[in-house]
Amino acid sequence: MNNLLDTFKNIFKIEELKERIIFTILVLIVVRIGAAITIPGVDVSLLAQSSGSDSQSLFGMIDMFTGGAFSNGAIFALGIMPYISASIILQLAGIVVPQVQDLQKQGEDGRRKLTQWTRYGTVFISLLQSWGVTIKLASTQVAGVSVVPDSGFIWTVSSIIILTAGTVFMMYLGEKITENGVGNGISLIITIGIIALLPSATMQFWTLSNGTLFFITFILLGLVTASVVYMTLGVRKIPVQYARRQQGRRVMGGQTTYLPLKVNTAGVMPIIFAQAIMFVPSTAAMMFPESQFMIEFSSIWNDQSPVYAAVYAVIIILFTYFYTAITFNPRDVADNMKKQGGFIPGIRPGKATAEYIDHILTRITFPGSLFLALVAILPVFIGNLGITPLFASFFGGTSLLIIVGVALDTLQQVESYLTMRNYDGFMKSGKMRGRVGSMGGM
Known about the structure:
mainly alpha, Preprotein translocase SecY subunit, 2 domains, three-stranded antiparallel β-sheet, two-stranded antiparallel sheet, 67% helix, globular, disordered C terminus
């Protein structure tokens, strides 16, 4: 305990790190303030009464990522999700579009161009989604009274501009956190939105449960969180030997290193994709409230049913393999290893190395996909034990994985600042096992 307190004291002894942490906190406060400012012309009290019906739809997922900003009808209602969507689209385009593939291989210049395209895509997606939000708000009624009393052309256009500007501003804040703060800004904005729902979820669960259930539930939540941390950091190390070579008067190579293959290479993305698919029936039923067929069809996909959990798990497993395949190319890894004079002991360089890496990756992805599926459907079973749905969502799914992943990435960056200044880090060894990428691939 004393070592932990000393570590926190050391953080504020490093002037640069202290300034970055303060900057990050201030920016996140601005994000939460924007999530509480309602779009002009929206009746907040009526909107709050109708927000509960959206919990099992795409709107509910957006509301979770924005920390309740969507249900508040806030100027940050879209959150940073259009930016995430644009990033995913470009990442998938890198598989089939040669121009995007070339940019991905051009180093810093290519990344700068792709970032600019991502920004343009964010604005375009924000315009489309904000238009959908205005339609949703204008059509929402409580006891026959519209949430938006005057939903004319001027209100629609102004709301679209406000929502789009809010998303662009959040994208700007996220990039500034990455440059001048601690951690990945986009990931932290999503994480702070999810955490913002935890106090209200805890109070709601405390009010509706007894002390024993509350205590047991928190112990179980701690165990689940520990298992997620363990699997998130889990890697399979493949030994790589580099041959000795003469370069001038220096002898290069000759050392042995490791190629780390993550057990959960896909991160949280398979769950996000699967959620988007599973929410389609309920979302379509909300858009067609007078269609009896859509109402009956959506009722089959009850989020508390075993059928829902089984289909959800299968989709997550399939998406885990799919996303791992598009984000990790064994052939490229084998070619780069061969160019640098590296080889896996007992495996021929080139095609044989690529096949060996692919074989190992396929084997370790299977338990990783099963774990993702278990974490995703855990809130379904937890909810059947009498735990409120909002609090149960923190037992798994995107909420827990994002919080754990971003926390580990941020701690890793803080750890690097401490070790560079010869201070002890959070771990006894002074080093944390790093994670590749932010938010586990998001």
